[in-house]
Amino acid sequence: MNPSTAFATVFVDELIRCGLREVVVAPGSRSAPLAMALHDRCGPDGPLRLHVRIDERTAAFLALGLAKASGRPAAVLCTSGTAAANFHPAVIEADESGVPLLLLTADRPPELRGTGANQTIDQFQLYGAAVRWFADAGVPEARPGMNAYWRSLACRGWAAASGAAGGFPGPVQVNIPLRDPLVPGPADRRSAPGGGEPPRPGLLGDDQPGWVESLDGRPGGAPWTRLAGPASPERLGTLELPWTERGVVLAGDGAVDAATLAALAERAGWPVLAEPSSGARQGSAALTAYQYLLDDPKFTAAHPPDLVISAGRPGLSRGQLGFLRQAAGHGARQVVLAQGPGRWADPARTATDLAARIQLRGLPPAGQPARWLRRWQQADEAARGALDAILDAGPELTEPRLARDLAAALPDGALLWAASSLPIRDLDRQMAGRAGLRVLASRGASGIDGLISAASGAALAHQAAGGGPAVALLGDLAMLHDAPGLFAGPAEPRPDLVIVVASNDGGGIFSTLEPADFPDSFERVFGTPHGARLSALAAAAGLPYRSLRDPAELPAALSGSGLRIVEVPAGRAEGAALRHRLHEAAVAAIRGLG
Ligand SMILES: Cc1ncc(C[n+]2csc(CCOP(=O)(O)OP(=O)(O)O)c2C)c(N)n1
Ligand SMILES: [Mg+2]
Predict the structure, then answer these.
(1) pTM confidence score
(2) 411 vs 409: CA distance, rounded Å
(3) Which terminal Cβ of the chain has fewer Cβ within 10 Å, N or C?
(4) How distant, in Å, are the alpha carbons of 19, 329, 348, 425 from that of 318?
(5) What would the pLDDT profile of 215-273 be if each residue is shown by its tens digit?
């Protein structure tokens, strides 16, 4: 067996022993040994599920979605050169949001580097500090000791990406220089069971032609380095707090143990201000219009908390950050719950305490009226009533209404992927709290890139684990940004995913921001109308498409199976005007309570 094939076969086998199940491959020649080894281990009964994509940026975001929804590392493989650089946006998102990714970048051997050799760039620590761990594997060689090296290398990469050895999960790059030959030789093919298949450790036993040592892994399919039982990486402890009436829970993306936190808030009588992708927007204390409450300085001045518990990374709106600062000004204690080892969010630098979790002392007897919570809830209900009256008045499926109705229409067990820009914000302002819906978003770096792919990956993993239907709510620029994410070959696993596009011919969010006051530059530089026909894009990808305007037809539009596109036409200026009207009406309703 040649060294490149031996390495790839052993390395893939070891990653499988660690727990690898989902792998994405983008085509190339230098990566051939790994691509073939991965392909060899997938199939109806094989341990791996393989996904092939042309564009490495798409491939990496697909892996990100797979890893995010499954909670276990997904691997993505590319060839040398700019291919590896195209992983970078997903690497940054994975770093910021703690998603375990294994980046396998094939490289040219050292003698070809720095010589102007074809498709050769500097791949050493290509992603800088965005990875948890980087290893340059070295060119595989046929000498004793390599089996232990390759297998322990795979285990280290797995441990660093998954966080199983104690760190915060995230991306890991293993750079793999490979020398020709890059495909199995005739002898390898002949010797393998079944004739044409490449050899496989454990199947071959002693039959490893020309190799210098056994390439077998540990007996019984065990990994080379077994990690001791459930990880207990937290050094941070539980913070014991005396109960106080005026507490507030603020939950952002990446909140840990969100359901427990929501239940605790309910018991403590504290309103829950939870972003859609926090997972904490559930239970009777979760508000649906909290952003409008935070928009109203009169309401926030009249309701200063003396304790704020924040989880995940809040920061979807200026209102949340203003609220944190205002609470700090009143001397409120602010307890931040860490997202994981070494990772916590404190965007307003107002944290007074950091803890893994909290425990409350002196809770009032259950069933006692929670006056503080009631006041927040009454304001929330008043705002909701005013908002719904406006949303329901017109015949059109406006963007805010689409967000509200979509989140309500999906069955329990469904997954909703929310794009950056207005989709996640419309959901945040309009979505009713509910426990059965899983809302995911790329909030680490809040990019509008890779979202079709990330949503596809998340849907694939969600459904592989028995989850229900999936929907992605995307803006039209986000859709165009990741158009390659629509294209997958006939052999590729397809998610059951509806891509619902809020289609306002440009960046609608900018119409709600300061640049909108500069009409000279606004439309071309910020609005960025493109006039793209999404129906034609869908046709190019061979995907079902429909346009949707009537709110009553939303459930029917979501029906079907496979990957499909639903376009909801909208206007940017009209959207901004509607959002302003919603704000005014909600604040008036809150103030109307006296
Ligand atoms: C990769 C990337 N490029 C640029 C931005 C800046 N940006 C934020 S929102 C936005 C407009 C998004 O437009 P669209 O997806 O149509 O959503 P809409 O604002 O219309 O809801 C842009 C360009 C970003 N977040 N990420
Ligand atoms: Mg748009």
Answers:
(1) 0.96
(2) 6
(3) C
(4) 41, 16, 11, 11
(5) 999 999 999 999 887 666 567 899 999 999 999 999 999 999 999 999 999 999 999 99
Instruction: Mark out the alpha helices in 252-296 (DSSP H runs).
Output: 258-268, 290-295
CA of 531 to the centre of ligand 2 (A): 11
Question: What's the whole-number mean pLDDT along residues 519-540?
Answer: 96
Locate tokens 């006051």: which residue?
517
Q: With a 6 A CB cut-off, is 420 part of the ligand 1 pocket?
A: yes
Task: Indicate the residue type of 126.
Answer: L
Amino acid at 232: S
Using alpha carbons, list the distances in angstroms from residue 294 to 249, 291, 422.
Answer: 13, 5, 18
How many Å apart are CA 225 and CA 546, to the nearest integer? 51
Ligand 1 center to residue 195 CA distance, Å? 52
CA distances from 493 to 78, 87, 497 (A): 19, 21, 12
For the chain, list the domains and their CATH numbers. Answer: 3-198 (3.40.50.970), 233-377 (3.40.50.1220), 394-591 (3.40.50.970)
Ligand 1 centroid–CA 508 distance in Å is 8
CB 21 within 8 A of CB 163: no
Q: Is 447 in the pocket of ligand 1 (CB under 6 A)?
A: yes
CA atoms in the 13 A half-sphere facing the CB of 586: 27
Cβ atoms 502, 475 nearer than 8 A: yes
Q: How many CB atoms lie within 10 A of CB 353?
A: 14
Residue 442 Cβ inside 6 Å of ligand 1? The answer reads no
Residues shown for the chain: 594
504 lines ligand 1 (CB under 6 A): yes
pLDDT band at 109 (very low <50, low <70, confident <90, very high): very high
> Quick one: which ligand is closest to 399's CA?
1
3-state per-residue secondary structure call for 78-114: ECCCHHHHCCHHHHHHHHHHCCCEEEEEEECCHHHCC
Top pLDDT among 43 and 548 is at 548
Ligand 1 proximity of 509 Cβ (cutoff 6 Å): yes
- pLDDT-derived band at 594 (thresholds 50, 70, 90) equals confident
The tens digit of pLDDT for each residue in 420-455 reads: 999 999 999 999 999 999 999 999 999 999 999 999
Distance of CA 157 to the CA centre of its chain: 20
The beta-carbon contacts of 406-410 under 8 Å, at least 24 apart in sequence, are: 406/471, 406/473, 406/500, 406/554, 407/276, 407/431, 407/432, 407/434, 407/437, 407/439, 408/432, 408/434, 409/554, 409/555, 409/558, 410/437, 410/468, 410/469, 410/471, 410/558
Q: List pLDDT tens digits, range 280-316.
A: 999 999 999 999 999 999 999 999 999 999 999 999 9
Residue 230 has a pLDDT of: 62
Query: Are 57 and 450 within 8 A, CB to CB?
Result: yes
Q: Is the CB of 14 under 6 A from ligand 1?
A: no
Q: Exposed (0-12), middle (13-18) or buried (19+): which is 233, by Cβ within 10 Å?
A: middle
User: What mean pLDDT is predicted for residues 17-29?
Assistant: 98
Ligand 2 centroid, distance to 509 Cα (angstroms): 7
424 lines ligand 1 (CB under 6 A): no
DSSP string, 169-221: --EEEEEEE--S--S--HHHHHHSTTSSSPP-TTTSTT--TT-SS----SGGG
For ligand 1, mutation pick of 64, 88, 417, 420 (most atoms within 8 Å of CB): 420
